[in-house]
Amino acid sequence: MTITPAAGPDTSTLRGASTPARSRRGTGSYDDRRDRLADSALVTLGELGYARTSLREIAANSEFTHGVIHYYFRDKTELITYCVRYYKATCVTRYDDVIKDSTTADGLVRGFADKLVETITDEAPMHRLWYDLRTQSMFDAALREDVLYIDATLETMVWRVLERYAALAGRPVRLPSSTAYAMLDGVFERALLRHVCGDARALDQLHATVLGTLPLLLADA
Amino acid sequence: MTITPAAGPDTSTLRGASTPARSRRGTGSYDDRRDRLADSALVTLGELGYARTSLREIAANSEFTHGVIHYYFRDKTELITYCVRYYKATCVTRYDDVIKDSTTADGLVRGFADKLVETITDEAPMHRLWYDLRTQSMFDAALREDVLYIDATLETMVWRVLERYAALAGRPVRLPSSTAYAMLDGVFERALLRHVCGDARALDQLHATVLGTLPLLLADA
DNA sequence: AATGGGTCTTGACAACTGTCCAGAAGAAGG
DNA sequence: CCTTCTTCTGGACAGTTGTCAAGACCCATT
Prior knowledge:
2 copies of one chain form a homodimer. The first copy, chain A, folds into 2 domains: 30-84, Homeodomain-like (Arc Repressor Mutant, subunit A), CATH 1.10.10.60; 91-217, Tetracycline Repressor, domain 2. The N and C termini of chain A lie far apart (45 Å). By secondary structure, chain A is mostly helical. The first copy, chain A, has 9 helices and no strands. Chain A binds chain B through residues 48-52, 128, 131-132, 134-140, 144, 148, 151, 174-176, 178-179, 181-187, 189-190, 192-193, 196-197, 205, 209, 212-213, 216, 220, and chain B through 48-52, 128, 131-132, 134-140, 144, 148, 151, 174-176, 178-179, 181-187, 189-190, 192-193, 196-197, 205, 209, 212-213, 216, 220.
């Protein structure tokens, strides 16, 4: 998958627009290999966390050697930044099916809860990496622009779910988008923490919490 | 302030119970200097974040030299762990005055919102450090025990506020303690992120959000 | 004054980090 | 074949890290 940033922070790199589509060596185009490197990096980052992940470790878990990284990325910051944007593309559409396929308010709530549990089960390393990067942005200004942009994207993603829920229920959401997102994110982050720490009940509790909480976000009938 | 862990994870160090109360050198007792070292460390950690803070940096910002750290702490992990516990002691009583002094439900909500804004204004580095450590615990098992214990402590701290609020309002809280904490924590974390990133409206919005949201946590009249 | 032990300083060590570079490897075009 | 360009390798560099140890310092007791 080649990332195609539609909006948001500047995505230009050191290479001009005339990037060669075909490579001389290796498989796939220049951008393909860049993305595969970012893909490997994300796996390693999700495993070790931002702080402990070195460029050599990233390279070791990829098809490249450590020297190549500086061929595709100017420095570590550019690699991380690119990875963050790459990550975003993999998660913005996560709940679109829930929105599209639900025909009742209760069905949407169940589908949403199921999806939250599923994504923690399948993609916990990616989620903890996101929280890691978001927290790091409080110390490292270089990450802020991207983090805030992705956070806003996630907020609208959640808001689309709630708007559909409100429409199906015939009652408006009684909280602003920012508050609703912050609350649900807090619930999700807590469940992720418990789950990663080995709490077997974390996912069931998340499911129950979402079922019990989402109705409270709508105005009274 | 000397930390006196009442409950929670094991706090024992390499030194036995017969710790000398008076030192031969430096000012204060052995435990005093240990705490002052932890105090310096927390300031540095809050400034740079867990990942970027080295033992030499901690020592440079303290009254000690870098070698002393291994005299008071076995290794970096023990220092961090001690700091985390030390941190907890400084924040568990944060809202006790609000609980004690409030005489009306609305007054408690205002006092709580004021206090949240105040603590972000005054102690933002400490808060972002907490979120940093909590996130790191998802990657580093050594931190988990302490993090989960502190998180539980914060939950009961928030719960005490809500119980008092419910009593003053004459309506019960309609969410379990865990959910209520997760939601408010999400709102708080978001406000902190915005604030640290330079968003001047973050604190006003936090205040307004708390005023608007807390009533929703109680059952209908 | 001498001793002994708690406290602290200083320098060293190996391991690791991001970055850079000289050159090899390989494909495309002449 | 030879040249040219992209791609990649492997090593080197300087800086930083946690950890340790030899010894200096200082105070209390004898």
